[in-house]
């Protein structure tokens, strides 16, 4: 294959991502190529027509769909590649990566015994039971990463907040209070740095109850992909992973059918836990949790609609902090 054809094919492959194309090369090889292009079979159709201004060596998708052509710069002039019009480069096989509407096992159809029908009312009774299980409210979940803490000792009790960390928690509490939302509760990790962060934040939210839990403690939820050679978690994945997954299942789900109004809840915990929860809630591969980074005292806002749809409003927001106060430890 000529060098020009190889470069053109490589450019098309890189631009196309996961899309596969059947393509043919048009035109002659540049002078000096060690290996000329093989002649086309006698029965092969003539070369496809090039758009105006297209240079020899263009790559065209074989007939079967409308073509969209764009130039790629090169020293010898524009090189052309094509894709089916109306298609994106992120095509995927059917059924792969599709949204699971029953991800939290609270889909109304999953909560009703479809085999149980009254002989007289039939479908009417089924519709009534489905409506009884249908959520009506939206849950707003605010995931707060703890503030900067001392790294001198391994013992949790020595991991108290630094003076800067206390300032960060103060700024986070002020930010949450300024939103004017009716927060119902603050659930926090039982680790020292998360508990101290919660105490400072709660000063700005008087009357909001605080709940401590071991489920939200820091840990290694799942082996990251791609792996990080220099990062070796102390905990074992199968130990921490089960606990962090339990935290997700316990706290991240659509509202109960009995809930009438939208709710606003705060969870103060750790970067690994928050990143894993975000991946799971959005149904992204959970192994990608380590690809995200969160600042100390940052706010991540998840929204869970009554129909189970999940939206990420903010991820690791620290825009309310002065630049000199922002850390990531």
Explained architecture:
The protein is an alpha/beta fold. It is 25% helix and 18% strand. The protein has seven helices and ten strands. It has helices spanning 3-16, 108-111, 123-133, 163-178, 192-202, 237-251, 271-281; strands at 23-25, 59-61, 67-72, 79-84, 139-145, 183-189, 209-213, 263-269, 299-304, 310-317. The strands form three sheets. Strands 7-6-8-5-9-10 form a six-stranded mixed sheet, sandwiched between helices. It has a two-stranded antiparallel ribbon with strand order 1-2. The two termini are 52 Å apart. 28% of the residues are buried.
Largest sheet: 6 strands, mixed
Structure annotation, total helices: 7
The arrangement of helices and strands along the chain is HEEEEHHEHEHEHEHEE
Task: Kindly name the structural category.
Answer: alpha/beta
Q: Brief overview, please?
A:
With 329 residues, the protein is of the alpha/beta class. Helix content is 25%, strand content 18%.
Element layout with pairings:
Blueprint: H1 3-16, E1 23-25, E2 59-61, E3 67-72, E4 79-84, H2 108-111, H3 123-133, E5 139-145, H4 163-178, E6 183-189, H5 192-202, E7 209-213, H6 237-251, E8 263-269, H7 271-281, E9 299-304, E10 310-317
Parallel strand pairs: 5-8, 6-7, 6-8
Antiparallel strand pairs: 1-2, 3-4, 5-9, 9-10
Helix pairs in contact: 4-5
